Every structure is written in structure tokens, then in C-alpha cells.
Amino acid sequence: MNKILKSIYMPILAVIIAIIIGSIIMLVTGFNPLAAYASLFIGAFGTLPNIANTLANAVPLIITGLGVAIAFNAGLFNIGAEGQYWIGAIVATWIGYSFKGLPWYIHIPFALIGAMVAAGLWGGIVPGFAKAYTGAHEVITTMMMSYVAIYFSHYLLEFGPMMEKGSVPQSPLIKDSAIIPTILRNTQLSYGIFIAIAAALFVYWLMYKTVWGYEMRAVGFNQRASKYAGMNVPLNIVLSLSLSGIFAGLAGAVQILGVQHRLYDSFTSGYGYTAIVVALLAKNNPIGVVFSALLFAALGTGSQYMQLNAQVPGQLADVITGLIIFFVAADKIIEVLKSMFKKQKKEELAS
Amino acid sequence: MKEILLNPQLWSATLAMATPLALPALGGTFSERSGVVNIAMEGIMLIAAFFAVLFAHLTGSAWLGLLGAIVVGMIVAVIFAWAAVTLTADQVILGMAINIFASGFTAYLLNTIFGFSGTPTDTPMLPNINIPVIKNIPFIGQILSGNSVIVYLMIILIFASNYFLFHTNLGLRIRAVGENPEAAETAGINVIKLRYLGVALSGLFSAIGGAYLSIGLLNSFSTDMSSGRGYIALAAMIFGKWTPFGSFGAALLFGFATALSMQLQNSAMSKNIIMMLPYILTVLALVGVGGKSVSPAADGVPYTPKK
Q: Sorting pLDDT into bands at 50, 70 and 90, what band is B266?
């Protein structure tokens, strides 16, 4: 119990400091932070549909966040989850609308698996092999591949092969047999939430209860030592980046089949980047990812409500997100503050 | 195709689009040569772009707008340096945090200060400069003359940076700190100070690049207007093998891809394919096709001085 408390102490402190700085920004710009946070909370959890939408928002964050966490566990920074998400979404959409007459129990798994394979290859093959055999930094390669994926989706949708007839850059709707049904009517919450929870349990089992997970974590902890212990380091690098891509792709597919039902032309889903934040705050623990995804999903749904009801621009959520990550990364700030506080006390005593 | 290539607009647009990539690429070169990976340049550009408009609007002078943008950009860079160098936090994560913060903070301020209608239309712009003699040469004159003052500033900075980095003592020290901080410290060099300098310079150049976007090319700010240029600049820097001239060359190439895709507005297919090229080229450069790009040895590794 004490161990758990210790590991969640820093992330919670980071959230609190970020909320306080957010309040200061609101005060300076003439808003009432208490009213803003209250409406943010109501927007996220106030009614049953609001709760459902928060949960729905958490689904892609949980699944993508798990992927990012796997790579982090292996000491790799998959900053390109966004692109892998797009590849998954593209493939799931394509399978979703091009195959007719399949029963749902074949069509849905087909779309999900197709998306996972494609995104796994996208994230695993180029960045994975590049890292394993030439040392090319995965932060840059995954980021570059991400842009390629996004432009690829523009190419497909803007007068390209996946564009629906007409002048709107979007794909056709997927067939009914590929739709993951909604749980609560008029909300975005689909049965995809169970896929997300199952994924979290699976990743926990994989990373902490199997040899493969142990090896990936060992490589992340110390590559040289793992190599001398006889582990195949390049294989584990490719494997963990592929798994990272597989989950990002699954997230894209679940979002298409469960919520959007078609592919829209847009520059960012936002999930790929927030997923990194989710994994960081959870300290890459798969179960922690679920809770941290819920927090950021709540910030997302709550901030829209806050903008409507307290007139505070919703982008405040991004300000707070950025601050949280800053303080999680720079956790030594706490020590600096502590030592400053101690010094002040000493000086007070001396005078 | 021939018609497009002979259009001087394509080439002046190449220069205009290369400038906001070359400046942060140059900044990134300093930062990474000193051993700090700075992906926060994207956020610094965005913040600078916003404050350039704000200060230009408040003072009525585009030059004071540029100055304000530089001051704010460098403050953010120094905060980043403090967390990354002094507190030895993970540089990529910090950079991401600053980018998310910058995106939210500028959009928040845009809405609270200027309202939902956007920045005022009477915001002053930095001047364009006509070069005597050259401006009268056909074709060449249309490309090289009449650009924003920042374009010419950028070209001067490229040469100055190359001189500074490779022909001065301080430049040599910055490079030493990024390659082998232990050895540099043994030789009496202050690793921490030089890394602060590297990051501060990246803040300076990114801020000029950001101000160029909002008060050089336009006279307004819109949310997320840096649109990934800080990241593309990193790619240009890598493609240019961490040198000022290389970064500039890569920025020109990437700027050309952007300019060409703008000319090809009507055939959307080729436009998006062309936009992919810079990213594919960068991956190829990293894995070693056409001469491998190798980063400074201590790039991205925090250093704790031995005392």
C-alpha cells in the first residue's frame, strides 16, 4: 500500500500544482477559477450522458496510451503514436466500407486486426529496424512517419481513392456490420470501452507476468546488461515499437467503428499526443494508464462545458495538461522548492 | 510543370517558406551541438508569434513586436534550460510539455485578449526590403529582392552562425560540451553555462522565426499557426548534419516542397504526396542513405557536474 502511495504521490502533486497555476492564469485574466473548475467537473461527471462521454473520450486515450507505455517500458519514446493511430483508422475505415455481407462477428474483428497489423508494421518496421540496426533515434523517425501517415490520409481523402462521392473530403460510411454499437443512446460511449479495459489487463499481464514483457523491460532498463544476459536487444526493440504501433492502430480502429463510423479529413486526432501524456502521468503502468486517461478525458469533455457555462476558453485544459507534464518530468522542482522552504525557515529562526 | 518552375513566384515562395524552417533549424543546431535536444522550439515559435502580434499591436511598432517576441521566447527557452540542464529532466518530455502548454496558452490568450474575432487588422507588419540594382535584374530580382527583412536577417545569421560555431573559441567549446562533457569539464569548461547558452540561442532563433510567421508573412495570429514547423526544423537540422549551411540547404529543400505544393493547389493528390517528401527524406538520411547523419555524441544526455 505504501509503495502504491509513493508512486502516485508525485503525479498527484504535479496535477495539484498545475491546477493552482491554472487558477492564477484565470485570476489574472479576470475569471473565477472556482466557478470554472466547478463547471469543468460538472461537464465531465455531472450527468449520466456526461459521464458516458468522458468514458468514451477515455477509450482511444487508454488504448493508445498503453502502446506508448509499452515502448517507454522498453526505453523507447514513441512520439509517433498519432500517425499509427491514423494508419489504424484508415485501414479500419477501408475494411469497414468495402466488404459487404459479412456478419458482424467477422467484420468487426477483421477491421480491428487489419488496423492493428498495418499500424504495427508502420510503427515497428521503419522506426524499429532503423533504431535496432542503425541507431536512428526513434523520437525523430516515429515523428517523421507520423507526418507521412497524416499526409497519406489527406491524399486518400482529398480527391483521392477513399473520398466519398461529392465535394466533402471524407470517406464513405462503414457498413452496419462493422459498427461497434453504443451502450448509452445519444452518447459516444460504445462497447469499445470493454476492448480498452481488456487491452489494459492484457498489457499488464504481458509486461509483468511473461518472459517477453520481462525482456522488454530489461532492455529498457539497461541495454548493455540485457545483451550480456543473452537477450536479443534488436528483436526486443522492434517488438516493443511494433506493439506500440499495434495498440495505436487498435485505438484508431475502435474510434472509427465505435464513434466516427467514417474517416474525416483533419490534421490531428489529438489522441496520439495526449496518449504520451497519459502514459507519462501513469508512469507507464498499464493500470495507471486507465486512470490517467480518465483524467485527461475528463479535462477534455469538461473544458467544452466550461467554455459554454463559465465562458473560460476551453484551451485552458491544454495549459493545465502542459503544466502537469512539465512538473512530472521536472520532478526535482519539488526538492528545489523544499530546500528553499527549509532555508527560509532557518533564516527566520536565525533572525 | 515547366511553366511552374519558370514562375519566379515559386522561387520567392521557396525562400519565404524556408525562412521559418531555417531559423529554428539554426537554433536547434546550437542547442543540440551543446548537447540539449530542444523539441520545445515548436512551442517557442508559437508563443513568439503570439507575443509579436500583441506587442506590435500595443506599441504600434512591428520592431517592438519582434523585440517582445524575442524576450518572451528567450524566457521560455531559459525555463526549459533550467529544467533540462539544471534539474536534468528528460528533454524530449519537457519539450512536449512546453509545446502543449504553448498551444493552449496562446489560444487561451487569443480568446481572452482579442476575443473570438481574432487579432486586430491594423497590426503593423515588418517591412519588405527592395535591394537596389538586384531588383532590376529580370527573374532574379523578383526572387531575391522585395522579401521580408527577416529573410535577409536569416541569411546573415546563417553565415554568422557558421563562423561562430566553427571558427571561434566559444563555438569550439559549445561543440566540445555536446560531444564529451566530461572531457570538456576536465579542460576547465563550464558545461552547464554553455548548455544554457545553446538553448538560449535556440530560443532566440525560434522566436525570430515565430515572429516572422505572424508579423513578417502576415499581420495576424491564429491558433497553432506554427503548424509543426519547429518539428520540421529539427528534421532540416538532422538532414543538414547539424551545421548552419546544411540546415539552410535542407530548409530550402523543404521550403521548395511547400512552395511547390502551394502551386499545385488544384491537383490535390500530388500536393499531399509532395508534402510527405521532407519527412521521408529525413528518415532516409537518418538510416544512412546518402551519407549517414550522426548526432553529437552527448546529445540529449543530461550532465551532472562533478565537484
A: low
